[in-house]
Amino acid sequence: MSLEQEIAKRRTFGIISHPDAGKTTLTEKLLLFGGAIQKAGAVKSSKIKDHARSDWMEIEKQRGISVATSVMGFNYKDVKINLLDTPGHQDFAEDTYRTLTAVDSVIMVIDCVKGVEIQTEKLMEVCRMRSTPVICFINKLDREGRDPFELLDEIEEKLNIKVRPLSWPINMGKNFKGVYNIYEKSLHLFTSSKTTIAEGIEVKDITDTLVDDYVGENNAKQLRADIELIEGVYPEFDVNAYLNGRVAPVFFGSAVNNFGVKELLDAFIRLAPQPIPRETSVRIVEPEEKKFSGFIFKIHANMDPKHRNRIAFLRICSGKFERGSNYFHVRQDKSVRFSNATAFMAQDRETVEEAWPGDIVGIFDTGNLKIGDTLTEGEKLMYTGIPSFSPEIFKEVVNMDAMKTKQLEKGLLQLMEEGVAQLFTYELGKRKVVGVVGALQFEVIQFRLKNEYNATAQFVPQNIYKACWISSKNPQKLAEFVDSKQRHIARDKDNKLVFMAESRGWLQMVQDNFPDIEFHFTSEF
């Protein structure tokens, strides 16, 4: 197959939502449809024995939450789908932000009982920054939720995006009868099945009395009234407005009961964009270009605890990736060869010989790669838009076992390069402070240091408001600033200078007093 045909076959997307909206469950069901797994295992349930396939880390099994982003590839109706399941918990937001840089579109899961929550708003802002196309899936219709029209209004208002329902629920909760697919004009009756797939009934005309026979007279009447209202209030669905990130098509269903998922997937492969052009420091790169290029958006150490390995996740942006070829590592300005490249099916993985734009490939790494690195066939360009954000919570690392200092240093370094958190080392006294977006991160770091590196550390809270990356057009002024504020100057893992501000007011004062110094809240400037 030609490069163009391979590109046209691919869809790469992320699933985002607030914790507990049913994101990992939806992921499972999508894999079920793709034939990638035979049986779905719910994430939190004593009845269903299998743990969800995409949550493999020990701590995830204990807690029932997704901590790391999982990458899965599967085929559906001759389309190769690359799915990135992100952690919904806000303590792992940084990982999610970075994952969103590697996808071409997003499915957002919203709980019909709770509606739009704060975390969803934050994620949507990141999608907005990049005009990422979004499809909404309103989940959990088998529970008594809020009025669907009310939910649509809330999405428009809070997420600042126009919506267009492409399917519509017939009642909800105990009386949930099913969903009418407006996009394909067919009726899907609800049968509660957690592990298998049911077929829909085609209803070409909603005025047909068949509808009454299936869902009852009152429900049918209500459905016709609702559809009429939708057609009156919402403009015709415009695919280009969706692709530009201006309109979000909305689907309804119940992922745990496997309901409404197939309609979502069928519409998704028809609507969602194939791999898109990407910005670099030099120019925009088109996926159809013959020469390979791609970037690392995530690094995961110790995916297999028995073997100390690091896997770097590479998003391919142009050309064809071939295993065993030499590629140019732009940051290190040298040629590297990857003899081992894998594709993922959650925990299972297979070796890949070749991969195309849109694909995500795992590369075994001995420590050469960092998040944000670009690989090309020789051209010196860097993919942009993969920043580190200033953390919210800071704690000093205290080693509890002097005999294990080396293990602790190595563990910290590897976990930081993975992007779990950020490490700041003070110039004075070499104190090490870890900054995270959410408190749960510290537990994960402590747990992994102990289990994977056999190192014991305590974390002592610090009185720090923000870590600001600093720069100046005047090197002398920068040196003077660093001198005068030595106690508050640290370096990040890339050796960039960081000013550790203790309070908002104090930061404001310092900014006023040193007009030549620029303070940045993300590492990309």
TrEMBL record:
GTP binds at residues 17-24, 85-89, 139-142. The keyword tRNA processing does not apply. The keyword Transferase does not apply. GO terms for cellular component: cytosol. GO terms for biological process: regulation of translational termination. Keywords: Cytoplasm, GTP-binding, Nucleotide-binding, Protein biosynthesis. Gene3D superfamilies: P-loop containing nucleotide triphosphate hydrolases (3.40.50.300), Peptide chain release factor 3, domain III (3.30.70.3280). It comes from Dawidia cretensis. It is found in: Cytoplasm. Residues 8-278 form the Tr-type G domain. Its main location: cytoplasm. Belongs to the TRAFAC class translation factor GTPase superfamily. Classic translation factor GTPase family. PrfC subfamily. This is Peptide chain release factor 3.
